[in-house]
Design a protein that fits this description.
With 374 residues, this protein is α/β, with parallel strands linked by helices. Helices cover 28% and strands 25% of the residues.
Length: 374
């Protein structure tokens, strides 16, 4: 079938993207779903820093590639031998397909699925297949098994989670990355407990979701840190008890607010320098969790002795250490109960033709979460 999608041919084009136009809206041929795959009509797709990091070249991927990885839509065809999904069902798409058979999956860490990670690096679906047809001499690659900036996509069924059809697509899409990563980092990775103090560095979509997760987990002190005053204002409206402008001495301010540091600190920026600050704002015996994706060449330098003498924990969290099949329904239920107001994170909706302008907005810190609505 013919589909319309956003193709990235070359990384590293200069900003503003409204002028350089790295994402080209083109007509592509999409093959039908194979075994274990679904054809999904995309309802909405979120704009994330993980897409931006491919556009600007800080997270290199194989080219050309159809971008987008945070999405929700409707199943319109089920591939042969595919179980568990029906035509007409609404789904959220997660960016790590889980094979359920590798060492990570069988030890209950499907977010670290080894075949899923290999497929994502190769720009293929979990099966190794490419479902976009040849376009101007090459077959476009899939972004993180999803390629959501397209009106229809073929995905592995292992990338999809069925959801309540009452959820608007532009809200449902956010559960595929921002909510899983942010809420999961606080709940699953940091293991926040009632009464904890939590500090969150970076208040984009993932950071704001982490803030919401901290409130749900029962944290009594929630501190948001960002460079943008408007985001600090939104953080307070979403339940932050304190906010800190990142241009100040954030570490000293957090340590003063918490009498020695927060028990749980989450870094979402993807900066080694910010991660050092987040670690410094963590109290003795506390946990620092990083979910940001810095340039692969960046190194981290912290006082090694502090890991022993202060008994701190520094850990990474990919996809919020979430099993999408378990955690998407759990987080959706919290939203429907009014306890996780994910809709407050959506600051802009746009059309497919406005993607380049949307990524300018994201790069400038002028949005929390944006969604292309089809």
């Amino acid at each position: 079938m013919k589909v319309r999608g956003a193709l990235l041919r070359e990384m590293g084009l200069p900003r503003p993207y409204a002028a350089s136009r790295p994402l080209e809206i083109v007509e592509l041929e999409l093959d039908p779903p194979g075994p274990g795959e679904l054809l999904v009509r995309v309802g909405a797709a979120g704009l994330c820093h993980s897409d931006l990091s491919v556009i600007d070249g800080s997270r290199p991927r194989v080219m050309p590639m159809v971008l987008g990885h945070e999405a929700a839509g409707e199943v319109v065809e089920v591939g042969p031998g595919t179980e568990g999904f029906a035509v007409g069902e609404n789904v959220v798409l997660a960016f790590v397909p889980s094979c359920r058979a590798c060492a990570s999956c069988t030890t209950e860490r499907p977010w670290l699925c080894e075949p899923g990670a290999a497929a994502n690096v190769a720009g293929s679906l979990l099966s190794g297949a490419h479902r976009f047809g040849e376009h101007e001499g090459s077959r476009p690659h899939h972004h993180l098994g999803v390629s959501a900036f397209t009106d229809h996509i073929v995905v592995s069924a292992q990338s999809a989670v069925a959801i309540d059809a009452a959820l608007p697509y532009e809200i449902a899409a956010l559960f595929g990355c921002a909510v899983l990563t942010g809420v999961g980092a606080v709940v699953n990775a940091a293991r926040t407990q009632p009464g904890d103090a939590v500090a969150i560095f970076g208040l984009g979509g993932v950071g704001m979701a982490a803030l919401l997760g901290a409130r749900v987990a029962g944290a009594t002190t929630v501190i948001g840190v960002d460079t943008v005053p408007e985001k600090l204002e939104l953080a307070r409206a979403l339940g932050a008890t304190h906010t800190v402008l990142a241009s100040s001495d954030a570490v000293a301010e957090i340590r003063e607010l918490t009498a020695g540091g927060a028990q749980r600190v989450v870094e979402t920026v993807g900066s080694a320098a910010v991660l050092v600050e987040a670690y410094g704002a963590t109290r003795r015996g506390g946990t620092t969790v990083t979910v940001g994706l810095p340039d692969p060449s960046r190194m981290l330098s912290i006082p090694a002795v502090s890991l022993v003498t202060e008994e701190k924990t520094l850990r990474g969290s990919y996809l919020g250490s979430c099993d999408p099949a378990r955690d998407v329904p759990r987080f959706v239920d919290l939203y429907l109960e009014g306890r996780l107001p994910v809709d407050r994170l959506l600051t802009h909706t746009l059309g497919l033709d406005e993607l380049n302008e949307g990524f300018d907005r994201l790069a400038a810190g002028q949005a929390v979460r944006q969604a292309v609505v089809f």
